[in-house]
Amino acid sequence: MFKFDYQDHYFKQAKKEGYKARSAFKLEEIQNKFHLFDKTTKTILDIGCAPGSRIQYAVGQMKKNDISEYKILGVDIQDVNLNLPGVKTYKADIQDIDRIQEILAENKIEKVDIIQSDMAPNTIGVKDVDAMRLFGLLEYVKPILKNLLKPEGKFVIKVFMGPGFEEFVKEMKDIFGGKHIKTLKPISCRKESKEIYVIKI
């Protein structure tokens, strides 16, 4: 019997559509369900933006919504080069929130409409350890969400199921309101993956 290989399918589809990685399709599923990008979206901060597929998707959404004046800023500890309109990428560490604020100020942005993060630590394949490492990193993302997101802004943050997950979701609900916080594991995630997305709508 033919077995459909999602990993192979989304890898090939990303290549076909010109995306740098399959993560664009995860964001697409989240967009289809929760409508994060709309005609009011003008400023986006992408944390851990390498290799850039989510920024590619965001640019497509700006075009779809006929938004000509927008700013998308990507931050990563790796160099990311994307020759796309309205996009600037920076090599910076999200642990340095002062630098992140400087980057926004350089672009005449005080707070953003959307924060998206597909950031992950160097995984070792031990699920609980990988989860704890990611939630350790997300401690540095929390002040970014609190201080740099507009009150009506939205976010989509990758996390791992495991130690710290329930606590993180509860904290986000306490900060942003329970009705605004959702979780979703897109079907384009690898079946064996523990990743899931925490979303503010």
Could you explain the architecture of this structure?
It is a single chain. With 201 residues, the protein is an alpha/beta fold. It has one domain: Rossmann fold (3-Layer(aba) Sandwich). It has 6 helices and 7 strands. Strands 3-2-1-4-5-7-6 form a 7-stranded mixed β-sheet, sandwiched between helices. Helix 3 (53-64) links the parallel strand 1 and strand 2 (71-76). The longest helix is centred in the last third of the chain and has 22 residues, at 127-148. Mean pLDDT is 88; it is low at 1-6.
Strand-residue proportion: 15-25%
Order of helices and strands: HHEHEEHEHEHEE
What is the CA–CA distance across the termini? 41 Å
> What Rg, in angstroms, do the CA atoms define?
16 Å
What topology, given as strand order, has the largest sheet? Answer: 3-2-1-4-5-7-6
Q: What share of residues is helical?
A: 25-40%
Q: Major beta sheet, specifics?
A: 7 strands, mixed
- Count of the separate structural domains: 1
Count every helix, treating DSSP H or I runs of 4 or more residues as helices.
6
- pLDDT under 50 segments (min length 5)? 1-6
Overall spatial form: globular
Helices and strands in order:
Blueprint: H1 6-17, H2 23-34, E1 43-47, H3 53-64, E2 71-76, E3 87-91, H4 97-106, E4 112-117, H5 127-148, E5 149-160, H6 165-176, E6 181-184, E7 195-200
Parallel strand pairs: 1-2, 1-4, 2-3, 4-5
Antiparallel strand pairs: 5-7, 6-7
Helix pairs in contact: 2-3
